[in-house]
Amino acid sequence: MTVAYAEHGSIATLTLDNPPVNALSVAVRQGLRDGLRRALAEPTVAAIIVMGKGRNFIAGADIREFGRPPQPPRLVEVIAEIEASAKPVIAAIDGVALGGGLEVALGCHFRIGTPRAQLGLPEVKIGIIPGAGGVERLPRLIGIEPALKMMVSGDPVRAAKAKELGILDAIVEGDLAAEARAFAERVLAEKRPIRRLGQMPIPGADGDWRQLIEAQRKLASKQNRGQISPQKVIDCVANAITLPFDQAVAETIRVINELIPSEQAKALRYAFFAEREAGKVPDIEAGTAPRPLRGAAVIGAGTMGAGIAMCFADAGIPVRILESSAEALEKGLARIGKLYDEMVQKGRIGAAEREKRLGLIAKAAGYEALGEADIVIEAAFEEMAVKRDVFAKLDAACKRDAVLASNTSYLDINEIAAATRRPESVIGLHFFSPANVMKLLEIVRGKATGKDVVATAQALAKMLGKVGVVCGVCHGFVANRSRGAMTREANFLVDEGALPHEVDRVLYEFGMPMGPFAVADLAGIDVGWRVRRSFDATRRKDERYSPTADRLYELGRYGQKTGKGWYRYEPGSRTPLPDPEVEAVILKSSKDQGITRRAIGEDEILARCLYAAVNEGAKILEEGVALRASDIDVMWLYGFGFPRWRGGPMYWADTVGLGKVYDGVQRFHREQGTFWTPAPLLRRLAESGGSFTAG
Ligand code: 3HC
Ligand code: NAI
Question: Counting C-beta atoms within 10 Å of the first and last residue's C-beta, which end of the chain has fewer, N or C?
Answer without folding.
Answer: C
